[in-house]
Amino acid sequence: MPDPALIATAEAPSSVGNVATGFDVLGHTLEGPKDRVRVERIEDGEVRLRSVTGVLTELPPEVAQNTALRALDALRIAHRLPFGFEVDVVKGIPLGSGMGGSAASAVAALVAANALLETPLRASELYPFALEGEAAASGGRHGDNVGPMLIGGLALATEDRLIRLPVPKGLTCVVVHPHLVLETRTAREALVMPYAISDFVPQSAGLAQMLVGLFTGNPDSLRAGLRDVLVEPRRAHLIPGFKGVKDAAMDEGALGASISGGGPSVFAWFADRGTAERSAPSMQRAFGRAGFDSDVYISPVDGPKASVIA
User: Fold this and answer.
1) Domain range for residue 264?
2) Cα-flanking dihedrals φ and ψ of residue 4, to 5°?
3) CA angle 110, 34, 6 (to 5 degrees)
4) Long-range own/partner contacts, residues 271-280 (CB < 8 A, 24 or more apart)
5) How many domains does the chain have?
6) Predicted pLDDT at 148
7) 177 bridge partner residues
8) Do 151 and 26 share a domain, yes or no?
9) What is the DSSP string of 95-111?
10) 63-103 per-position pLDDT tens digit
11) 255-275: per-residue pLDDT in tens?
């Protein structure tokens, strides 16, 4: 049997990317589905996929196209490691769900591999490699999913900075995931047409209001920050029933609601868990009226981070 000291397993949580006004730079984790990755050090100086199980059983075996392999290969090359890694992935987060499924595989792989290094790296030092892994799925180095998975909670994740943000006590998220796949690249294609510069003013104002609301706990600022005038209008048509789900959340007292990541999941923020739990069934019924079964997850916005479990 392999030496246990050469093997580690880690889990990474699901997430809400963008959080309305924070396209590609703001995200938070969820108590919900997770990806689990087992990483073994191998003498060969390469990174390879051994198995995929869980909610899907196939992932690209090519390093450039697999988020976990690409992240580990970037780590191996940057630190000139004299060994490679063999990877087993247990997918708990569906791909194309808008819940960070691609990112979670990359982050779980990195956290597991980091435990096998002689001198483990800090989360901020793993971040560039997680960004490289994310690029395998989305085509760009976007930190709104991998960032919060590495440090937990709600994060501002630019290409060169990763900052955990304060979260007002009790702030709770409901995510409704319809049984529908919306590929990340398809969702991004909806955004290729140019925007007028004037469109960015209200979006920037919303992001500023979001940050003010987080630091002060002001619910009115949070409401103003949960209004996406750039991305949501161009993606809403890709999600059957989206308007009904959002309206249901707002009618039940949500601070705001929008598309989770690239969709098709929809998220809403509530000031407390009790209101979130009472509101979740209405959101789920709205997707049912559109013809889709769905799963519901209720989580603190200040959610968990990736961690080694074995």
Assistant:
1) 172-300
2) -55, -25
3) 35
4) 271/170, 271/171, 271/172, 271/219, 272/170, 272/172, 273/170, 273/172, 273/298, 273/300, 275/172, 276/172, 276/173, 276/174, 278/252, 279/174, 279/248, 279/249, 279/252, 279/253, 279/254, 280/174, 280/176
5) 2
6) 98
7) 295
8) yes
9) TTSSS-HHHHHHHHHHH
10) 999 999 999 999 999 999 999 999 999 999 988 899 999 99
11) 999 999 999 999 999 999 999
Q: What is the CA radius of gyration of the chain?
A: 19
Residues in the chain: 310
- 10 and 133 inside one domain: yes
Domain CATH for 283: 3.30.70.890
Same domain, 31 and 74: yes
CA distance 259 to 28: 13
**Do 91 and 215 have their domain in common?**
no
Q: What pLDDT was estimated at residue 279?
A: 96
Q: What is each CA distance from 196 to 22, 202, 227, 259, in whole angstroms?
A: 18, 12, 18, 22
Predicted TM-score (pTM) above 0.85: yes
Residue type, 85: F
Are residues 287 and 184 located together in one domain of the fold?
yes
| 74, burial (CB in 10 Å: exposed 0-12, middle 13-18, buried 19+) | buried
281 and 209 in a common domain: yes
